[in-house]
């Protein structure tokens, strides 16, 4: 608002300065039909600081003073008629009001050569002399005011383009001014903002939070930031909106600047990112293998629980930000890994090189015996992602398969040896049978030679040997195939041992070996297959006689109850014995520990190597156990243990 202006022309102070330039030109009578006293008045007006115009009713300028010339930037020497003032549609009414003697305030646009149009505020009054003209006055600071208004308009335009809602408040929350591109974000009509307190206009919880913040500002704080959310208005569709507010107390003033920003999109984006992160974390956590991720600087980013479980002794070192080398060396120092002796630093360097190069999969043994398979890949950003799988069971199965393969190879070798021994054991007596039979048949020593009788005995002995060999082979085959039947009955061990001694006595007498039996009279009966028990006794006693020393040899057969109620049947000799590593060989089919020079070289003493394996299979068929103890030069003891369920008059089921 411009200050009021009277219709009379101001009286200029006395000065000797004469009008210059365009002012002097306009004062000449050939341009304006003025009386001399009118011309003198205009000279004084030309020296005023207030911009003045004399206008014709059509807006053409007939005179302007130096201040007006400077305001519009009119070039020196340009005629006044080049300046035109446009009042648009209000001009006729303004002229009428001015002609009637009233002061009229209008916004006008001044057009001058070589300059841009300029908007100015003018006050119009009729000029007393010369008549028919209008005197227009503009404030002296009009240019600065116009620039300020222009900048203010630009700021207002920018404020509407800025996403924040900004309030100018008093300390009690009264809203002095606001600017908002979208005032509806706060669910409040824009007309309610002015002349109200912000805590009364905004809905809860924003109102309460802003009121509390204003209270803290009044207590001395200068800057307060807070977050709040606003649900959609009741009865309307929409989602909750999220805002950030910042209140700043202006120094040396009772005003507060408050900016509120709608951050709903950012909050929703962050929430979606968190959900995606949680989803990915849950998926990684559900992996059965250990998962670990290192960044481009080789620092730990994340790992799952399985990874921590695999390296539980190193858990406190497995923290985000720790370098791979720190974690590795810490594990080595704590003995997590099985590192070769004397190569600790080399092992660590090779492992770091393999990790940074993301080389082929590798297997690593931990100190507790577990095996870990490590696979690593490089990410696009230069990081490393790794999988750690516990392959302990796989390694155990590999070891089992390797052992089974070795055993199969050994079994195949035993099979070859078995066939070789079998062919040898059968060919030798068969050759004897064929040779002696041919001698007798051809009467090569003459008719009725007494030696034919001895040869016939040799043939019979070879036949018996081959029959026993074949029977033993068939028994072993039936037992391994699960087709050996037991004809069970209550057996008297004393009687079975006595019968076996009777059968083996001739051989023992020939070898000068004593047979001793130590069986209590009150020993309970044994429920089993009597023929198989006798066969076990025959095999064990025959071996004992064969390898006992002549003349002072002794074979003892003992039976007794065990602590758990079973019966232990023991056959012991004081013969040449075996070393511990020879015992497995003796238990293999056709296993021959001692050469023929260590046993008496007679056909009757020659063994097939099936006695011990067959005895072990027969006692297992009865549910018992077989144990052999032997020392070289001391003797051999074989212990057959029958389970408690076979002791007594009848078979007792467990």
TrEMBL record:
InterPro entries found in the cross-reference section: HATPase_C_sf, HATPase_dom, His_kinase_dom, HisK_dim/P_dom, HisK_dim/P_sf, PAS-like_dom_sf, PAS_4, Sensor_HK_Regulatory
S-adenosyl-L-methionine in keyword set: no
EC number: 2.7.13.3
Chain intervals for the UniProt region annotation (Disordered): 1-22
Domain Histidine kinase residue range list: 421-646
Protein's name according to its UniProt entry: histidine kinase
Keywords (A to Z) from UniProt: Kinase, Phosphoprotein, Transferase, Two-component regulatory system
Reaction(s) the record says it catalyses: ATP + protein L-histidine = ADP + protein N-phospho-L-histidine
A Pfam match: PAS_7
GO molecular function, one term: phosphorelay sensor kinase activity
